Amino acid sequence: AAAEKGGHDYFMLKEIEEQPAAVADTLRGHFVDGCIVLDEQRLSDQELRDIDKVFVVACGSSYHSGLVAKYAIEHWTRLPVEVELASEFRYRDPVLDRSTLVVAISQSGETADTLEAVRHAKDQKARVLAVCNTNGAQIPREADAVLYTRTGPEIGVASTKAFLAQMAANYLVGLALAQARGTKYPDEVAREYQDLAAMPEKIAELLTGMEPVRALARELSASPAVLFLGRHVGYPVALEGALKLKELAYMHAEGFAAGELKHGPIALIEDGLPVIVVMPSPKGRAVLHSKLLSNIREIQARGAVTVVIAEEGDETVRPFADHLVEIPSSASLLQPLLSTVPLQVFAAEVAQARGYDVDKPRNLAKSVTVE
Ligand code: G6P
Prior knowledge:
Elements: H1 11-17, H2 19-27, E1 31-32, E2 35-36, E3 40-41, H3 45-49, E4 53-58, H4 60-77, E5 81-85, H5 86-89, E6 100-106, H6 112-123, E7 127-132, H7 138-142, E8 145-148, H8 161-181, H9 186-197, H10 199-207, H11 211-219, E9 225-230, H12 234-249, E10 252-257, E11 274-278, H13 286-301, E12 305-311, E13 323-327, H14 336-353
Parallel strand pairs: 4-5, 4-6, 6-7, 7-8, 9-10, 9-11, 11-12, 12-13
Antiparallel strand pairs: 1-2, 3-8
Residues 59-62, 106-108, 111, 114, 157-159, 364, 366-368 line the site of 6-O-phosphono-alpha-D-glucopyranose (G6P).
């Protein structure tokens, strides 16, 4: 069993280490002769060009990967994108027709709510594109187009490598749509793809420096709660960081959009409360960066213990970071492929420090096939 876990105590820890390969394998073969290609494609070029709205539906971590995708798809394609929990979408009357694309994201491809959301969409003639980790699962079988994440089986109940691979696949979906619609020139698609292709190496580099994050997790493992703040693509990362901590460490954890701080969350700040802040790129997102910097100041002044995830070389955050976690710099839309990693490591280590089995968190199932 130890060998199966690659020398780790838990599958999840091995799966965290497998993330550079999970992203590389998911990208492989999808950029051919200057074009983004999906795995299965039963929609014509014309049908793809006619798409005028996108809904992303998913549950759990897959939903968070969809929230990240919205920023990229809207930016690259100029299509309106809504991201919705499958369990909400399927019981609403969403306005859909044959020019709506529903992107269903599911590691297992069998989640009941996501499957029913797909059927609900198809009843209204919407086109469905599945992002899935399981060949031939029900959701990809019912979809018009499929992009598989290629992580191999994920054993840990809390998603890690599948989540990173989903984000990579979603970026490919965004580029495929931009290409079909002509909102990006071929050389621009190629450039974005090159940025994406550079990510596995950066994730690998980041993973070599996680010991301080583990030490910090042990230090903070008795905290009653942890807050997570982010903006733009860092906001869904904050939500995912909080979800991981709830799932694995059974700790009260909440992610907030940093711009909402003054609308409530700041009332929660008290002496010694750890707050993990995901900083945007100082160059790529200078305005948001300066806004987050003042948010950190405000919470630090009220006694929060600030843990700041920031790009290497971002000197401006140092004075306000009680703990600094550096990540390699990257294209700003792609940063979640990096900023998520220390949050996974943090949650896993807090859980272990508290004596929990990180592969099998209490009350949770790997795949929720009944409502
Ligand atoms: C469960 C798992 C999560 C996963 C979610 C959605 O809650 O514990 O890790 O994100 O289901 O699963 P899916 O297979 O549809 O991605």
